[in-house]
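Hi L.,

You mentioned the student needs an example of a multi-chain input paired with its predicted structure. This one should do, with 278 residues in total across all chains.
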Amino acid sequence: MSYVIGRLDRALRRRLSDALEPLGLTIAQYTALSIVRSADGLSNAQLARRTLITPQSMIKVIAGLEDKGLVTRAPDPDHGRVLRTALTARGTEVLERCDALEEQVEEAMLAELADPQRSRLLDDLKACVRGLGAGFGGE
Amino acid sequence: MSYVIGRLDRALRRRLSDALEPLGLTIAQYTALSIVRSADGLSNAQLARRTLITPQSMIKVIAGLEDKGLVTRAPDPDHGRVLRTALTARGTEVLERCDALEEQVEEAMLAELADPQRSRLLDDLKACVRGLGAGFGGE
DNA sequence: CCTATGTCAGTCGGACTGATATGT
DNA sequence: CACATATCAGTCGGACTGACATAG
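Structure written out for the whole complex:
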């Protein structure tokens, strides 16, 4: 089972990174961009907790996005040290193109499965994540 | 969906590598060791094809296992260049301990799922792998 | 003082591409 | 010559730990 999960993840990452490559984005950057959209104005530390990576890792991802002009980081007026991250117009546009590409890859992956099977699979995967103590409940 | 698969894989890898660490093995080494057991006497190129990685990557993994004395590599008598990889007694022993550790992690991961759900999940995951063209059919 | 945040620097596992030598 | 195999060297994305400064 672990082996199959690992292989699936590897195949998926490969397909996704190939698809994202023309846009100049890595998978980690695409993921971070999605999180920023779903909750605008988070700090680096908050972003890191949401994606379950360290703030040191997240900072590199965000720096890449900032260099590309896809996000901006503005100091919180009420808190001198915190930098709140927000999508730019170009960030929104690029993110939408990524979504379309991701959907194509996912469609290929799920080709054999009908809709009810797909949602059941997603539920089961989430249950596995919970079982490993990496659940979707953090900040 | 892709996001959940990625997160699951990351959590799983983390747990597994922590469990394997006292034995001095990496996940890639454990995987390779399992493949060698399931088909003794494969060449490096064959091992690479089975696990869908490049022979250049596999050679590093195998070298690590050889250094630890868990596998041996002997030249094929009928083919001067090919090195056939086989488990040593210690390799078999270490592998069995790894299996026990892996089972514990998997049990935690699958805690919420009953037996029929588990096998269905495995089937679905394999279908996804096939969908991405990384199926289990190669040499 | 303690905690949280941002950030630099280094390291690591695991995969890749490129190049090269050699055996069938 | 073409092809497969082994293998060295370098690179890359993505995550980690350690260390440190600063804000509340």
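You could point out the following to them. Strands of chain B lie at 71-76, 79-87. The helical segments of chain B are 2-20, 27-38, 44-51, 55-67, 89-109, 115-131.

Best wishes,
N.
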